[in-house]
Specification:
The protein is an alpha+beta fold. It has helices spanning 30-53, 103-118, 139-143, 169-181, 184-189, 224-243, 314-333, 369-385, 387-395, and strands spanning 4-9, 19-25, 59-67, 70-72, 79-82, 84-92, 95-96, 99-100, 128-135, 160-165, 193-204, 207-217, 249-254, 269-270, 282-283, 294-295, 338-344, 356-362. Helix 1 (30-53) packs across helix 2 and helix 7 crosses helix 8 (369-385).
Amino acid sequence: MRNIVLEHIPAAPMPGRQVEVIERKGTGHPDTICDSIMNEISVQLCKAYLKEFGAILHHNADKSLLVAGQVEHAFGGGKMLEPMKLIYGDRATYGVKGKSIGVEAIAEGAARKWFTEHMRFVDPNVHVRYQNEMKQGSAELVDIFNRKSGKFLPANDTSAAVGYAPMSEAEELVLALEKFYNSGDFKRRHPESGEDIKVMGLRNGKKMNFTVAMGFVERFIDSETTYFRRKEEIWDAGLKFLHGKTEMDVSLDLNTLDAKGRGINGTYLTLLGTSAEDGDCGQVGRGNRVNGIIPLNRPGSSEAAAGKNPVSHIGKIYNLLSFRLAEKIHEKLGNGAEVYVWLVSQIGKPVDHPHIIAVQFAGAGEADLKALKPQVDDVIEKEFDHLDRFIDELAHGKIPVA
């Protein structure tokens, strides 16, 4: 049996609190780009390791910096003066026992592929330069991969993660609005909408405001007049979408730095659909949590999951597993309680046996913990008994991290 502890916390569930603040950094935000690309690098390394060596070897591709380029903006389309630069690194196994894989080529190929598939106007061969900083791992951490006992490796770090369920209505709305604006259907109707979309949601009681930043792709904007007309259309579409999703009193503000009469300087234009082209650098770990949002009212993990290896690094495994466990427990109990799951590891101990699994319940009244424990234990034990399946999903990129 695993060390499972239940606790009731005397706090109102999130919808019962007065103020709630949630952020979502969309597909083209520089931080989301870094998280997404580094996780794709890990996925591609996992596939290569499995193909060449029959097992996933030591790697942690969880450090990157997307250095902003430089652009000359113009209505109707500007030009790139200096490309963006993606610096990616940390540690990877290049080979064992006389066999090797092309880590640098795999990493750069994964990055180019991601840009091609997710950013309509970024040419990965023209608009981005790449700098590989993937080095060999330390002897002790590499040796963890030789210490497998049973199905699972030892944890390669002492750390903690926390997940929760369910998402509040406000959290779901923030996530849904960004996905609506970045959907294929919306982009077909509004190709001028760039992928770099940030949504800040502020709920105060039953009122909720959404502040949206969205770069407009300048090749589709021939004048300031056109910009503000398209902006009105996009604002209206977003507000109608929200009204169809909630009965809360909602308002939406779009590109609040804009100022009519100032031409280029009073509009949010983008050449490529991302502020990384000239306005903002990106970094792993500064973006969304693994449930797709930045919920500022919630406890959060200190680890960035993106790019960490999925077989021994609990910074990835526990980050995502804590949310899955919370969702499964919430679904199993069906009592409306808000569930938080904390997982703590000890370096060198098997990843399927955390130091502690703490399950917290927030609700109006004190939960009957003794009655709930058998059901909670059952959910947790089943998930850990099938942890190898979960790890396989992570290794093949079937679970998003951003």
